[in-house]
Amino acid sequence: MFKSGLKWMFLIIGTTIGAGYASGRELWEFFGHGSGLAIVLFMIFFTSSCIVIMTISYKRKSTEYRPVLRDIVGEKLAKLYDIMIFIYLYTTTVVMLSGSGATGQAFNLPYWWGIAFIVISLVILFSKDISGLLSINQIILPILLTGLLFVLILFTIDQELALFSHWHEQTNWIAAFPFTALNILPLIAVLGAIGDKVESKQEIWFACIGSGVILGSISYIYNNSLIQIADELLLYEIPLFAILKNYPFQMVIFMSILLWFAIFTTAAAGVLGIVTRIKSYIDKPLWILVLTTLLTMIPLTKIGFSNLIGLLYPIYGVLNLYVLTRLLLYPIWNNMEKRKM
Predict the structure, then answer these.
(1) Which domain of life is it from (predicted)?
(2) How many structural domains comprise the chain?
(3) How far is CA 225 from CA 2, 30, 120, 194, 260, in A?
(4) Which DSSP letter does residue 230 get?
(5) pLDDT grade, residue 305 (50/70/90)?
(6) Shortest CA distance to 118 belongs to which of 298, 279, 309, 299?
(7) Domain containing 287 — which CATH number?
């Protein structure tokens, strides 16, 4: 139970911790001052949502997300959200490929080298079916989480920060809803694809509570650190580098590599959601579907996706609030539907 639960826990964390989260940009956009309670609420909402999604996936023994989606939003809306999830995963993965190219440029490598490297890595990863992703997550994520926590705790100690000094400021508690909602769609896509591999409910509870506590704790410490340097964040595209500015250059290099791994795990989770959906129509080996999908994305990496994301993400945020509400109230309305039957 422990080993399997750990495997699913890392899958959940890997899906959620993308470059936006690891860099601090996503956290600062949603949280910031007065957000202690918001992060606690996020931890509760996130854990509850994961439990519901994984439980449905486990009961349905699903190999892709549509059966889970139908249970959550109903037959009619499932078609709309099916399209939304696919577009969301596709555009997010394109942005991750582009991010890998940009990371390569930071190390004085050509833009296309960075893209080629992540494409080849993803194809190799899925050559062993889904087991490759689960295995690599168990290697990468402990390093990523440990490195991130190490930097944040070191900064907290060096700056003599009090973790609960801003606890009395709770004006931004409502941010918990859109932040959790934004992370729901990829989780439905990824967790909906592994239902046939989950063996017990104990695994589900371990994975969901573990991932919720870890993400909640890191989010709180990270946000508390960013509050201390709020005035400097306008000068940095990546807030994490504002924290690292007084540390040795080797640490900046190390964290840049970890940021690439965050890009990689997000891209891998997105690709998993896409190809398991395509596989229901085209019965080909997973790595062939991965390669074909990624090849369609490469030309799009040079298009200005900031405008596309600026349009899509607010729409996702609003529409996802309905999904979040359905997930949080699932035990109630599911029991009501059973009574009607």
Answers:
(1) Bacteria
(2) 1
(3) 32, 15, 36, 36, 22
(4) G
(5) very low
(6) 298
(7) 1.10.4160.10
